[in-house]
Structures are given as C-alpha cells and as structure tokens.
Amino acid sequence: MRAVVIGSGIVGAGAAYHLSRRGAAVTVVDACCQGGATQAGAGIVCPWVDHPEDDDWYRLTREGARAYPALVEELGEDIGYAKVGALLVAEDPVDLEPVRTLLRRRHAEAPEMGDVVDVDTPTELFPPLSDGLSALLVPGAARVDGRSVRDALLRAATARGARLRTGIATLTGDGEVLVYQADTENGTRWSPAVAAASPGETEPVPADGSEATSWRQSAPLAAAPAPVAPASPEALRLTGEGVPVEADVVIVAAGAWTGEVCRPLGVELPVFPRRGQILHATMEGVDTAWWPIILPRIGPYLLGFPDSRVVVGATVEDVGFSPRITMGGLDEVIEAGLRVAPGLFNATVTETRVGLRPVYAPGRALIGPLSERVVVATGLSAYGLTAGPFTGEIAAALALGETPPIDIAPYAPA
Fold it and tell me: Helical H runs in 25-109?
C-alpha cells in the first residue's frame, strides 16, 4: 500500500508512524509553512476539564490522552512527557465548583485523571503563584513537548522506510498528488489569505469568557475575518510543473491549510486558522521540571519544563493567515500571566512562538474520508498535542481500510 501524508505536524507525523508500523510505503510531504501549530503548542494533556457539553469532542481528547503512555513506551525516547498534574485555580473557590462537579461525573470512565483533591497552599507546588488562590489538583494531567513528539514519530516512521519530502502538495480532482518546489531557505509563505485578497487583520478584542464552553478555552480575542476568495495553485504563484507522487491512499493533515489542499476535490472544508502567541521564560537556578500545569478559569495557562523553563500562553485570535508575534499579543500574555503568577516578574523571556491552530467551523475535529482514496484529519484547535497522535492513528486505520479505534461519525466532513 502506497500512502502519501500531506503535512508533518503532530497529526501527520502520527499518521505516518502508524501507517509505517502496518507495513505501508509512506511518503510525507510538508511545505514548511510559517505558523505550523505543532511547534508552538504548550503541551498540555488534561482533557477531563474541557468540553462539558460535547461528549464527542471529549471522547476524542480523552482517548488521545489515554494513548500517550503506550506511545511513550513504543517510541522509547524522551518526548518531554511527564505526569506533573494540573492545578485548576480561581480567586473565588465558588468558581471551582462547576469543574469539580464535571470531574466527579467523568471520573468513573476516566480513572487515569487520578483522585481530584483540594490544595490549600498551591504556592507550595508552583511557587510563583499569587497568594490566596483556591485550587484543585488533577494528578493525572501531563505535559509533553510537541516538537519532540512530532520528531520522534517521524524518526520512527523513517526507520521503517518512510520518506520525507519538502514541497507544496496539491491534489487533482481524482485525488492524485502533485508536489511543487517550496522555498525552504526562508520558510514557505503559503497563506491563502495573503495570496487571494487578504481581508486584513482585525483589532484584538479582549475576551470576557462569556462564550467559553471549557475550563481553559476562552472565546477568541478577535472577530472572524471576512470571507476570503479561494486560493488556487495559480493564485499561490506556484512555478514549474508539479511532480506526481504515486499513491493508493492520501491523508491530508495540513492543519489550517487543509481546506486549500482539498479544494480541487470539489469539496469546501471550512477550516480556518486561529492564532496563538506563547512565550517561554526561564528562572535561573530554579528547578521547574515537576511544577504542575496551571489552568485558571480563563487563560493564561502556565506550565514548567526542565531547564528552569516556564511556558505562558496563549492568545486566541481569529486574524487569518498571519503567523506574527505582536506587541499586543505579548502584552496580553505577560499581563495575564503575571496576574496569576506575580512571582514570574523577574523571569527572563527567552523565546516567543506563534502557531496557527486549525479550527473546523462546525465546531469539532474533522476526521474522515473525502473520497475512496483521500482521508482528511485536522481541526484539533487547541487540543492538537492532546489528541494529535491518536487522530493520526485513526486516519491511518481509515486509509488502510481498517476499523478505527473509535466511532468517527461525529467528526465526519459535513
């Protein structure tokens, strides 16, 4: 079975890994577009606090989290995965009651979350926190390094014969793959909103959380951009002839660019980018490796990693294909981070990252066949590092004609 995977983010890498394990001849094609979501993800694996009114969304993220321990063992290398627990914090303890009730309801079917307990002095677990916060500890929560996971999955796939190619992959009407040369020196700037009459960026509007449906996922900071004209290969100014890549099956896991890749099939997939800006800071001489994840009711989240590193983020912005770090975005992240953890005031900002999270307009992830030979897998939004490898496994099963590990009907293309 010859399989082509378009996109080498967390979902595409997961698909390549599972395809290669089943003996498929795999080719992964990635355009190296600026703004890929995987490289900018924080790495929070704590699905039990989210999607209280959407069991299908929750099931996907829960199973994604549940699959990680076995995946870590299979890969046999450090991918930054560690069960450090998560502190749900609030200034008013009353605000913790809804999520406490949710966790109690879900515990029987997800005992891996651990026994949720109140924490009287959360600063003992995460010293920079503000005094006086109330907190619940979810001990089963984990953090993971998204880049390390993706790279490990791709290494394992190539060890079984998978090939990695850099280029802009497009589809023909019957699902054949054509690959055009990409500008790898400066990073490919393939962004449909720029190539086809950009509507321009909208000014961020602070979210008050009134539209939030999950503990850590607040409403976007800006209104959705105006509709953008479809970007054809001609509009993207592709030069030369596309090189065909033979494939019996194709998995499109191109993140926010998935709709553009699949348009030649005659389908309109309303997948759009949601920008997230995030920063990394270091606290010299402080051991942050086992600090728990900090999840306030409404952003920002904070989590520790080895090397005295703390991650703070992220913005939630609907501004089109614009993978830029902005003054306003960093201001929002820093101000909100210091409000929750004033002890980070003297931490050194060492890195900023930005990613375009793929969002499927109907609301859930998008996983399923588009034709007899093309499968799509994207739309994980802020939950890519939680459910990405598992979603890749689902896509691989579909491509090979196998029964997927969960019912995919709720995620089928509309």
Answer: 55-66, 68-75, 97-107
